[in-house]
Structure formats: C-alpha cells, structure tokens
Amino acid sequence: MPPPRKRGKGLRHRLAELRGPETQAKALDARALAALAANPGCRRRAILDGAGVDKAALAGALGSPSVFGQSQFAFVRGNAFEAKVKADGGTELLRLAHEKLDRGAEPPAGARVPDLTAQGPEGRTARTELALREAAESPGDWTLLDHPMLALDVAGSLAFLEPDAVVVHPDGSWTVVEIKSFPMLDGAADPAKVGAAARQAAVYVLALERVAERLDPPPRVRHRVLLVCPKDFSNLPTASAVDVRKQRAVTARQLARLTRIEEIADTLPEGVCFSPELPAEQLEQAVESVPATYAPECLSACELAFHCRDRSRAAGAVTSLGRPVRAELGGLTTVGDVLAAARGEAGDPDDPAVAALRRAAALRAEALASAAEGTREAAEGTREAAEGTREVAPCR
Known about the structure:
Layout: H1 11-19, H2 30-38, H3 43-51, H4 55-61, H5 72-85, H6 87-101, H7 120-137, E1 143-146, E2 150-154, E3 157-161, E4 165-168, E5 174-179, H8 191-213, E6 224-230, E7 237-243, H9 245-257, H10 261-267, H11 280-288, H12 305-314, H13 323-328, H14 335-343, H15 352-392
Parallel strand pairs: 5-6
Antiparallel strand pairs: 1-4, 2-3, 4-5, 6-7
C-alpha cells in the first residue's frame, strides 16, 4: 500500500494535482450538488466533484461510459424558451412571480435588472451579492437578477452556482426562479421532473440564505420557488409555486454529513491522479483507491455509476440491490454472507436479519416442495387419463 499523501500543500494545489496537470476544473453545479447530497456516504464522488474532475470523461477512459445527459436538441430548446421568458426585461417572468407568489404587492412595472457582468466566478459572485445588498437597502421595487452567481461551501470546497434567475420582491424578500422546458399540462407537470427541479432549487435557496446571513438585517429567502414551464403544447410560459422546504432541509442535512474534501485527500496515496489521459490500468487503480457507496439510484445521477455497479456486483455487495435491502440485512454486507446465513451455514441465529432469512428460506423450500408435489400429481393424473383413453378407444 503506497504511503498516504503528505500534508503541507494547500487544498487547491492538491485538488489540481488530483485533477491532472493542465486540466480545467469542471464546475460543480446545483444538479451535481443535489445528486451528491442524495448519496453523502460516497467518498469517491465527493473527492472527484471537489477536485473538479470530469466524471463523464473519466468513465469513458475506464471503459464504462455514461449514457445519460441532456440532448443537444433539448438544450437548444431550453435556451430558446428561457430567452422568451426573460424578454423585454423579464416582463413576463415578473408578471408570473406577482401572480403566483405576491398578489398583495404592486404589479411590477419598470423593474430593475442590474448588470451582473464581472471577471471570473469570484467576481460574478461579489457582483451578485452587491446587487442583492442594494436591492435589500432600497425596498419598494421589483428587481430581477438574470443568471446571478452564488457560492456555497461544500465539504471545504467552494461551489459556484448559477440559478436561472432570482427575483427581489418589493418587501425585500428573495425568490429563486427555475425555468424548465418540460411542459405543464392542465396546470400540472411530470412529478418526477418537478421533484428534480425542486431539489436543484433547494440548493440555490441554501446558497441565497448564506448571502442573506451576511446582511443586516438579513432579508427573507422564500421557500416557495417559481417554476416556469411551457403551457400545454405551446411555447407560452406558465408557472407554479413549488414549496421546497422539505428538499432544502434534506439537502442541508446531507451536505453537512459529507466528509470534508481535505480529509479524503489526505488519505489518498501519493501520486494519485484522476486524469482521463492516464493509462486505463493506472486510472482504475486511482479510482479504486477511494471507496464508493454504490446504489441503483446512482444510475440516474452519476457518470461513474456503471463502473461502480460492475465493481459492486463483482464484490457481491448487497448495496447493488438497493438501499432498502441493505438496511434490512444489518451486518450482512455481501450476497455470499446472505446466502450462507439463509442456508444455516453462518450467522448468529439470534440476529433478526439471520432469523428472517432462515425463515424465508424454509418457506421457500416448503413452497417449492408443495409445487413439485402438485406437479407430480398433475402428471400422474394426465398419465392415468391418457391410459383410460386408450382403453376405451374403438378398434379399427
């Protein structure tokens, strides 16, 4: 086993080493953060995302390419719809915000749309915070922030997040706006897609709350976000207010459980690098040096899911069967352990999981024996019927 990485280097320098020389860091967006929060025990994803590794390229280099992602057509369609929603200084967007979230306020007219242009993500983050501060200090008007930049500390690594928009209400409160290209049919959208949008918006709400905490007095960050989608089968925008308090609480709790990136980096062997340019064998050793926590849900959220699934199945890990199954099996961590316990070859009989497995195995054996007996009786009945038919058949 190679010696662990030596301390002393700055975290940013170490993450650059892990990413590979001359490799541009991949930004950690809200979608990735929501997926990371859904599996906080996966140290592999935490370090790869923290280092800005392109997991799609990494999966391809390992021979297990990912197969999910947004199509180019959907990307172009989404951009066109967002431009339509924000046209004319966001008039339609602000109208929807007033209608769905703040009917008691004065209708938006001549809203402020501050320029958030700045150099680099740090500059854009500072410019966004300044615009939010100015809007909070002069309430009474509507303000629309188009693609603001927010920062959120994630396990010791700074993630820069870019919501579609943030609306400042006349009372000084803030609302996150999510613009999606999937339709709302008769006022309702696909629940799965709405849930994914809510989890993503919850990350933005958390980041906005960090900005609000630095102001005195802190403005209220609304927990009802504005989800804007095409109406029915048209390209006309409609909206719905989505309460993300539950998603926000879950995301905050899960992100707090993440092992700090610096602690994971300190346990890695010296010289480990995740650059897709490395030979496949060396790259696989580097990836396997960080433990993963695979679950079937990873297939829709992580580019490395197919690689991790293959390794999980090869090791016989019960996590490949899903988290609910893993939770029911207690200390039995492999399929081999489970089968041995069910057959009575291993395991503590007083363990509830072992007792349940043995009971299930006994019931299965009883059911199979009963089915076999029924099959045998049916076969005998068929044979007797056939013999009786031959006896009564007329002679020719």
